[in-house]
Amino acid sequence: MTSKLIPPNPSAVMVIRDVTPNIVTCSAPFYRFGRIKVGGRGTIVRLQSGALAVFSPTALTPEVKEKVESLGGDVKYIAATDIEHHIFIGAWSKEYPKAKVIGPEGLPEKRAKQKNEDVHFTYVFTAKNKNDLKIDDDFDANFDYEFVDGHANKELVFNYKPERTLIEADLMFNLPATEQFSKSGQSPNSGILTKIFIYLNGTAGAALAQKRLIWYGPSSANKPSFNKSVDKIAKWDFDRIIPCHGDVIETDGKGIFEKIMEWHIKAANK
């Protein structure tokens, strides 16, 4: 199934971009259910100490390795940002064995059931430990983070404080995936299922479709917890949003986040 989701030639189609001197995105085609063009993105952040943190890692191509080396090469943290964004953490963990691996509850068991590579998770966030679990002083000096256990995919969301940049996976989308398909020779808008998915997961205008989708979909299993997490994130200081699916929101990310999550934030403050 993985072969239907990700491109067989990642080096040829991946866009490696310096968002800032300390933030690099690795964007590539990705197909939900093997057909819908949602795009995929990994993010590499250089901390103030010089160490690197990798979020939702994508294919570890020679070009990505070269970029890692250009940033200093000290990969200290690898984060699977939910129970879905873990396909490449085995390769990254093997290449950088000293890195601390971060993930949400349920993912180690899922990987074992799927017989994926044996990866040791240094930190596993759970609904019970989320308010007490800390990574380490270096990481915590650079990032706010929240485990959105109320989301169906068990989202881990990070805010790189020095550059006010929110990094997230499936908490919200910003389709179409223009950058992610820009080297593929395919339109990010083609296909009826993709068009429907873009309509449901856009951020333009009132974005009522995505607001409704999140309200009735991934947040519905535990809405009180989801609302509390989203309200906490909304209080962080960020302007840029780097999602896994769709284009980077370069500015006014806080306002767009508040728009998409308006009903949840209001519910949390009743």
Automatic annotation (TrEMBL):
Protein known as: DUF4336 domain-containing protein
InterPro entries membership: DUF4336, RibonucZ/Hydroxyglut_hydro
Signal peptide: none
Lineage: Eukaryota, Fungi, Dikarya, Ascomycota, Pezizomycotina
Recorded superkingdom: Eukaryota
Sequence intervals crossing the membrane: none
